[in-house]
Amino acid sequence: MKTLNNFDFNAKKAIIRVDFNVPLDENFNVTDATRIEAAKPTIDAILAQGGSVILMSHLGRPKGAEDKYSLKHILKTTSEILGVPVQFASNCVGEEAQNAAKNLLPGQVLLLENLRFHDEEEAGDVAFAKELASLGDIYVNDAFGTAHRAHASTTIIAQFFPTSKCFGTLLAKEIESLNKVLKNSEKPVTAVLGGSKVSSKITVIENILDKVDHMIIGGGMTFTFVKALGGKVGNSICEDDKQELALEILRLAKEKGVQIHIPVDVIAANDFSNTADTQIVNVNEIPDGWQGLDAGPKSLENFEKVIMESKTILWNGPLGVFEMESFAKGTIALGNYIAASTQNGAFSLVGGGDSVAAVKQFGLEEKMSYVSTGGGAMLEMLEGKVLPGIAAILD
Ligand SMILES: Nc1ncnc2c1ncn2[C@@H]1O[C@H](COP(=O)(O)OP(=O)(O)OP(=O)(O)O)[C@@H](O)[C@H]1O
Ligand SMILES: O=C(O)[C@H](O)COP(=O)(O)O
């Protein structure tokens, strides 16, 4: 696996695919700069060796060159984080980008305009990839969040750097952390899978059944399992067409010796609202008109025991509707158990847009061993897929 260590960047131009797809507010201020901060070690290392850096990224899912998705909005934040002025090319290809790249001096940084302003990016167009490639001497992929996309800048471009391509520090760290869970894990291994739907997590569940000792299934997924087992779930979110699949997962888990833990009680509400009336009920006795929106106290006690005994913990998906204060207790408690277990020496990996948002919101980020910058990319790795962005560097 080639990393920055395999190259001398002195007087070289590194073209780096980063994932600066960050959230912006209505005034185009960056509201969460984690992904920019996460790319800093790679950029710093190359600049420190006397190299120069050309950054390319997408932002959002624009239809053509929509100004609201311009990367100029993140220029100031990027300069502040990197501690150097960052130049900007208002098109990622063409004369302006070529001149800016050509004139770039050691220690300087250039940010190219949103790659997705050109349809060729997502189409994986070879000529477009070649144009991007012509801007740099060494290709570095540090965009874990976009490594599951076979786009021009994440995958196709690599063919133009047969011997001069490598993983950036962030991408290498993401792969290493996932391997600590999926391949070289210390037992017992526990996966906590929450979120809203079985359908979006089913392939992950199936793939990791072979790798874990315990699986905690929470969040909205709970009710498809409970109903399949004959329980009453009231108005809780439930995918009736996935009940057979839920039973099959339970059967497979038994066969593989994986212990599945499902909430035994829930906080039920008479409305999907923070101010709804609530009651604690058994998970399989939810009255008509009520819906389970968070794990209950007995469930949390059970989960705490499992988490505290685990040596490797993977967490993807919240245990309840944590966006509403009334239903955030389960997710906060779970985060605290994982933090405590991590302090006891367990390795913990958190990934997925909403779980990472929850961990940040509740101030638990520093207490986890690793918080992934990837949403869809991490899920695809957990599904056992080889990500095209990673494969292109390994080639
Ligand atoms: N009991 C429940 N009923 C309804 N929705 C729930 C329940 N528990 C959790 N959710 C919702 O599930 C959503 C998160 O699910 P999701 O599967 O998207 O998580 P994730 O994998 O962390 O995020 P992402 O898919 O963005 O990477 C949250 O918005 C949360 O409110
Ligand atoms: O935020 C993400 O998950 C990545 O930046 C990929 O974005 P995409 O789903 O629009 O390809």
TrEMBL record:
Pathway assigned in UniProt: Carbohydrate degradation; glycolysis; pyruvate from D-glyceraldehyde 3-phosphate: step 2/5
Q: What SUPFAM superfamilies has UniProt attached to this entry? A: Phosphoglycerate kinase
**Reactions catalysed:** (2R)-3-phosphoglycerate + ATP = (2R)-3-phospho-glyceroyl phosphate + ADP
Q: Which GO terms describe its molecular function?
A: ADP binding; ATP binding; phosphoglycerate kinase activity
Q: Which residues bind ATP?
A: K201, E323, G352, G353, D354, S355
Task: List, alphabetically, the GO terms of the cellular component aspect.
Answer: cytosol
Annotated binding of (2R)-3-phosphoglycerate, by residue: R35, R116, R149
Asked if the keyword ATP-binding belongs to this entry, the reply reads yes
Q: Name one Pfam family in it.
A: PGK
Q: What biological-process terms (Gene Ontology) are attached?
A: gluconeogenesis; glycolytic process
> Which stretches are transmembrane?
none
The entry's substrate-binding residues are D19, F20, N21, H58, L59, G60, R61
* Keywords assigned: ATP-binding, Kinase, Magnesium, Nucleotide-binding, Transferase
Might you give the EC number(s) for this enzyme? 2.7.2.3
On subunit structure and binding partners, the annotation says: Monomer.
The family annotation for this protein states: Belongs to the phosphoglycerate kinase family.
| Record's protein name | Phosphoglycerate kinase
Organism annotation: Hucho hucho
